[in-house]
Amino acid sequence: MYRLLVRRLVRRSWRQIAAGNYEAVVRKVGPGFRFRFLGDTPLAADLSTAEEWREWWARANRLLPSLRFELLDVLVDGWPWSTRVATRLAISATLADGTPYENTAFQFVTLRWGRLGDDIVMEDTQRLADALRPRATTA
Asked: How confident is the model at residue 74, as a pLDDT?
C-alpha cells in the first residue's frame, strides 16, 4: 500500500511540473537535499538548496520553452524513512527557433519521510547539448 501511495505522489508531482508548477516540488525539499543533473551541458548541476533548484527550474524553462514531461515508468522500493524511486521520462519542448526537442531521462530519487533527499537525473546529454549549444549564451 505504501508503494502505491508513493507512486501516486510521484505521478502527481510530475503532472504539476508538466503544468509549469515546479514550485510544488521545490517545496518538498528536505534536510540534506542534493540535486544532480549529470553531464556537461548548460543544465548540468550539483545543487544543495531549494533556492538553487528553483533557479535551475527557471533556467530549464528559459532554455527549453514549452518544456513538457511524460512520466513513462515509476518504480518504488523501501520504507518511509528511506524510499527509493526510479522514473523514466519522455521530454519534449519547442525551442525558441521552432525546432522540436525530444529526449529521454532517467531519475533516481531518495525520499525520507516524504521529503526529497537525493535527486539524480540522467538525460541523453549529447542530444541536450546539441539542442542548447546555440542558445545557452542567451538564457
From this structure: 97
11 and 89 Cβ atoms separated by less than 8 Å: no
Ranges of each domain in the chain: 2-138
- Decide which of 3.10.450.50, 3.40.50.720, 3.90.230.10, 3.30.420.40 is the CATH code for 2-138: 3.10.450.50
Separation of alpha carbons 116 and 99, rounded Å: 33
Residues in the chain: 139
Instruction: Tell me the pLDDT tens digit for each residue of 18-47.
Output: 888 999 999 999 999 999 999 999 999 999
Q: Tens of pLDDT along 64-82?
A: 888 999 999 999 999 999 9
Per DSSP, the three-state class of 58 is: helix
